[in-house]
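for the writeup, i need someone to sanity check this before i put it in the appendix. the sequnce is what the collaborator sent (i think, or maybe the updated version? ugh). structure was predicted straight from it, no edits. if anything looks off just tell me and ill rerun, i have time this weekend
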Amino acid sequence: MKTLRWLGIGLLLFKLSILASFANQEKGELVRQPVFAGLFYDENPDRLQSRLTVYLQAVAKLPQIPHDPEVIIAPHAGYIYSGPTAAYAYALVQSRNYETVVIIGPSHQYGFNGCSIWPKGSFKTPLGLMPVDEETGSELIKATGFNFIPEAHAKEHSLEVQIPFLQKVLPQSKIVPIVMGYPTRKVIERLADGLVTVLAKKKALVVVSTDLSHYLSQEEAYRRDQETIDLIKGLKVESLLRQVISGENLLCGGGGVAAALLYLKKLGEPQVEILRYADSTEGGGPKSQVVGYLAAALYLKEKKPLPEKQMNSSKAKSEVAEFTLSPEEKKELLNLARQAVELYIREKKVINYHPVNPRFWEEKGAFVTIKKRGELRGCLGFIEPILPLYLVIIRCAILAATEDPRFSPVEERELKNLEYEISILTPPRKIDNPREVIVGRHGLIISMEGKKGVLLPQVPVEAGWDRETFLEQVCLKAGLPPNAWRSSKAELFVFEALVFH
């Protein structure tokens, strides 16, 4: 037991050290601390300013483009190797009037599905703090269904090395940092659609952070990199997508490049300008194992209006965002629900639990469902996001086990046979037309004459109901006649849920 206790303490200290490495509170803000200052770039602010100035002043003649770039591609190695190439991309956008800069980088240290979007606060470098655009970040979270995964940002350099350049050339802008996990087609397309939905009417720049080939001979690297550059320049999105997904292409940030190309093709007719290509031999690296670097800019010859159908589709996707969790996070919350119930039933005590994971401190609505041998044994929850997620899970689990009026309280002899399901909700949205209810996506709330009924999204699916039956059943749940949803006095709300068990 002592060994297990020390292992638990060690794990907690490890998690705390990870958290301390990427964020702390400065003036009440979430701040991502610099991890690679002194490694990838100068930690002395004066030397860093001087180095950036030298890189930017050394940029040769840049192409004349008719519009501000919508996207730039820049490398993310140590500045001694990739800084002169990155400077070409940043020199092109220097002092232009961008409200926000979305930075997309690959995850090098932490494997996960989806993308992680830093939600608020700022990123810190030796040059100071660069603020996060909380409004745009929140809109992207809603439009894509992606969320904030702290571990993805903790030791990631692909975003960090872009920040000093941005502080130098676009000091007035705010940033939205995005780390992409495994670059699947679904992830890439969701991100591209989200960028269209959120950025179409904003003055925004997308920075794609990527290196090209890794550790090939200089001759082979050049050949392979030119093939990749040809795909980008020719806007061969489908070919690039296939290579990135299969792992055939050697771009480490290929998912971000593909998402940016898709994003621009949805907005209009893109034009690509290759600004510079180089490799790590320029910084003194060996010719036998080089890394390729690219600076490029993409702009739109002409923007096209989004078709009404696509606008509606994008709106539907962004109405209620999916709250994503890793398998480990889901397992932890399910264990928390089980432990909370078992401790309360056996000892009438509320579990003392304080999570390290900041995502569990986010305020969320949630339900906990308890089943016994597949049959419902209790289900209660909070619809509105009024408490941190971990507290909602503890309270809902105990309430479902002891206070559901449809069932007697759970007894100790039943504990070993109980199964737990958690539904994390997005905020309810009032609808005017019952046809907006989508079975399988939406949970449903009806409010009328002081009565209220709620049904979770999985209920009609498990019961095999169509939309009209779903509407009738939520009325019955509220103690109303089954056709009450047709009344002008009835108010209908929908929400979505991340459900796991």
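Residues 1-23, 307-321 have pLDDT under 50 and may be disordered. The domain at 327-500 is CATH 3.30.700.20 (Glycoprotein, Type 4 Pilin).
thx in advance!!
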